[in-house]
């Protein structure tokens, strides 16, 4: 073996990504599979994933922290909807507290992973320290999220070269950008846009949220009064459990109500917006989507901060489309002109699954779009590989932690029975294939050609339901009819 092909380390498990799901996976491994060696390969130079990358003004969670936080280290912050810096510190502190940070190899970007059945292991090609490194592992665990960290989705419009101001995408916010006294236009209507507008409006001369079509925007208390009461009256562990369960169940009820009675849900949401903005405001035009609730993710605004900014006159919503950029602003399809010194393109993400890693099994490339997802955590006919993929209608960590616990159960089952390979086997190639995500959001539609699929029934059906997943992943055997095992005979 030549110098370039030397293996720089072998581990029982390699985790890719040191964000929320990667730290959660590491904790579960070292507590439930204490005999397993592991390392985390992180492409960036810091812990935190999303919460380290995004630094735009007002960045905050879009789920409550009692369910987005780690179940083994409950969130103790004051706010249920927390800021990005708070979340980043929480993830870093958790990694340090449990010694997980000592297992992280920073600036290690995995570019290829090849499974060899003959060797019973994965070989990873990694760019690190200006050279190529190689690592091997028995099990590969992808916790690298679902979007491209290199850049977000950015449409281009006529006349951009004429614009005299700055054009900024939130995914890479310039540290030196000063909006004080400036006229800012934020293009977009999703979670990023509704977060940015009130934050920018604190110092900008004026902020306009320009949207082609509205989203459902729901106001929630920044602080959870039930959590505060529970922690005041109950032992800490009991209070944390009750608050977490309460939020899980409320989220499920909220989602079920929205999907079963969409018209009633819509009326309820718009009634809340009218109560804040007043009867003269055109709520239907600017906050009444044409799609059904949860066809796209809801936007949460703590204590209605977006509505407060609009009511104060510091911010406005315009529902229209960009026709072209001009020297000092934008011209819209309607002919209206929006003056601007800074334009923020909050236009979405670029989906990149498995961190963009080129996967192969015994020399054959793995095309993820051709695969079915097994229990929302593995890919059909791909051995010894799991991926962390959270909920679209609830906190990301809820599903990722279930996945991490199931991976540990799977690894322990294999050890007990002397097995070295596990693989979800799709035995019926004619099984119906459906989109993985039933979402109309732009980033999901743009990624339709690269996303894996789901089937019509378990275990190939992806449930956006914590209780169903809890039953499937925690209570049922890991050795089911779809899981194929191979390996040596157990020791006698």
From TrEMBL:
Question: Does Transcription regulation count among this protein's keywords?
Answer: no
Cofactors per UniProt?
Answer: FAD
Gene3D superfamilies per UniProt: FAD/NAD(P)-binding domain (3.50.50.60)
> What family does the database annotate?
Belongs to the FAD-binding monooxygenase family.
User: Domain of life, per the record?
Assistant: Bacteria
- Print the keywords alphabetically: FAD, Flavoprotein, Monooxygenase, NADP, Oxidoreductase
The answer to whether the entry has keyword Coiled coil is no
Name of this chain's protein:
FAD-containing monooxygenase EthA
State the organism named in the record.
Answer: Allosphingosinicella deserti
The Swiss-Prot or TrEMBL record annotates one GO molecular function as:
N,N-dimethylaniline monooxygenase activity
Give the matching Pfam families.
Answer: FMO-like, NAD_binding_8
């Amino acid at each position: 073996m030549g110098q370039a092909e030397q293996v720089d380390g072998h581990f029982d498990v390699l985790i890719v990504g040191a964000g929320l799901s990667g730290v959660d996976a590491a904790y579960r491994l070292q507590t439930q599979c204490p005999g397993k060696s592991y390392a985390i390969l992180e492409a960036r130079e810091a812990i935190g994933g999303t919460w380290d990358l995004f630094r735009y003004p007002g960045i905050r969670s879009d789920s409550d922290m009692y369910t987005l936080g780690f179940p083994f280290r409950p969130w103790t912050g004051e706010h249920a909807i927390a800021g990005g810096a708070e979340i980043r510190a929480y993830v870093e502190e958790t990694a340090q507290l449990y010694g997980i940070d000592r297992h992280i190899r920073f600036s290690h970007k995995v570019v290829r992973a090849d499974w060899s059945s003959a060797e019973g292991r994965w070989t990873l090609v990694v760019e690190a320290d200006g050279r190529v490194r190689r690592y091997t592992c028995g099990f590969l665990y992808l916790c690298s999220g679902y979007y491209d960290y290199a850049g977000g989705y950015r449409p281009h419009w006529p006349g951009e070269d004429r614009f005299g101001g700055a054009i900024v995408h939130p995914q890479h916010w310039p540290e030196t950008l000063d909006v004080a006294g400036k006229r800012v236009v934020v293009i977009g209507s999703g979670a990023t846009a509704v977060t940015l507008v009130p934050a920018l409006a604190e110092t900008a001369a004026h902020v306009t949220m320009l949207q082609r079509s509205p989203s459902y925007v729901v106001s929630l208390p920044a602080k959870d009064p039930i959590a505060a009461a529970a922690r005041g009256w109950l032992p800490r562990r009991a209070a944390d459990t009750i608050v977490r369960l309460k939020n899980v169940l409320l989220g499920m009820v909220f989602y079920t109500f929205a999907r079963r009675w969409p018209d009633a849900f819509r009326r309820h949401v718009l009634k809340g917006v009218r109560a804040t903005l007043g009867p003269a405001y055109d709520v239907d035009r600017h906050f009444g989507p044409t799609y059904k609730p949860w066809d796209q993710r809801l936007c949460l605004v703590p204590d209605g901060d977006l509505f407060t900014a609009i009511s104060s006159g510091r911010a406005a919503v315009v529902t229209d489309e960009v026709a072209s950029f001009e020297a000092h602003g934008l011209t819209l399809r309607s002919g209206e002109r929006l003056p601007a010194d800074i334009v923020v393109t909050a236009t979405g993400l670029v989906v990149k699954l498995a961190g963009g890693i080129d996967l192969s099994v015994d020399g054959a490339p793995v095309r993820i779009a051709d695969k079915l997802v097994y229990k929302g955590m593995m890919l059909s006919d791909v051995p010894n590989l799991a991926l962390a993929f959270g909920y679209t209608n609830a906190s990301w960590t809820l599903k990722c932690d279930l996945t991490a616990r199931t991976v540990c159960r799977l690894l322990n089952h294999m050890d007990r029975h002397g097995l070295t390979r596990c693989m979800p086997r799709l035995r019926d190639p004619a099984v119906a294939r459906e989109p993985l995500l039933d979402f109309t959001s732009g980033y999901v539609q743009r990624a339709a050609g690269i996303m894996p699929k789901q089937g019509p029934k378990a275990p190939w059906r992806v449930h956006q339901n914590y209780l169903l997943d809890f039953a499937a992943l925690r209570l049922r055997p890991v050795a089911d009819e779809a899981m194929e095992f191979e390996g040596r005979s157990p020791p006698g």
